[in-house]
Design a protein that fits this description.
The chain has 205 residues and is mainly β. The protein contains 3 helices and 16 strands.
């Protein structure tokens, strides 16, 4: 088994992962769990009819010390929240054992923090080229080029990128709203309210 580092220094994240072959039944059961680490079964799935390796999916689960489904917690635990449009994937630099993927994002509307114009957004998870596997954290599929998202992120000065919170920090938006000049999506309005009433993390003593 291979150990992954914790997702972010600002949160004590618990990970457990199993390896499954795309489009087939019989995914491996999750392995044992250790705080701040991730585990997944090694090995590459093989398509017997072709006799060659096929891409596998590695589902990873992240448990947060706070309820990220509460947008007030999400707002308090992150330092840059914005509506952005994904332009292109630019890199797959990883800071540890867990794959990470970087995208060029155009900031459309900044709700919290200093994210402006063109920035780099980092998504934890991505392709493990050695084992031909796609690591997906909390079911958070790779960002889609051309789509708009409501991002909730932590800024990492050393890399000059914004790391999104898996699953909760990249909410897809209706692209038609931005092309037609329609009303602001409700989830964006709700986030503005959550920012105004955010719950700081960690809690003040």
């Amino acid at each position: 088994m291979r150990r992954f580092a914790a997702l972010t220094p600002m949160m004590a994240i618990l990970l457990v992962a199993g390896c499954s072959q795309s489009g087939r039944d019989g995914a491996a059961a999750p392995t044992s769990v250790a705080a701040g680490s991730a585990y997944w079964e090694r090995g590459v799935a093989t398509d017997e009819s072709m006799g060659s390796p096929t891409v596998s999916t590695v589902p990873a689960t992240a448990d947060f010390p706070i309820d990220m489904s509460d947008m007030r917690n999400l707002a308090g635990a992150t330092d840059a929240i914005f509506v952005g449009r994904v332009l292109i994937q630019i890199d797959d630099k990883s800071l540890g054992s867990l794959p990470e993927t970087q995208y060029r994002v155009q900031v459309v509307d900044s709700l919290k923090g200093d994210a402006r114009e063109m920035i780099t957004v980092n998504q934890q998870g991505g392709h493990d080229n050695v084992r031909r596997a796609l690591v997906v954290v909390n079911g958070d599929e790779p960002l889609v080029t051309g789509k708009h998202y409501l991002f909730a992120t932590k800024y990492l000065p050393a890399e000059n990128w914004y790391t999104l919170v898996p699953n909760f920090g990249d909410r897809p938006l209706d692209d038609n709203v931005f092309s037609s000049g329609g009303p602001e999506p409700k989830i964006v309005t709700d986030m503005r309210d959550a920012i105004a009433n955010q719950i700081p993390y960690p809690q003040p003593r």
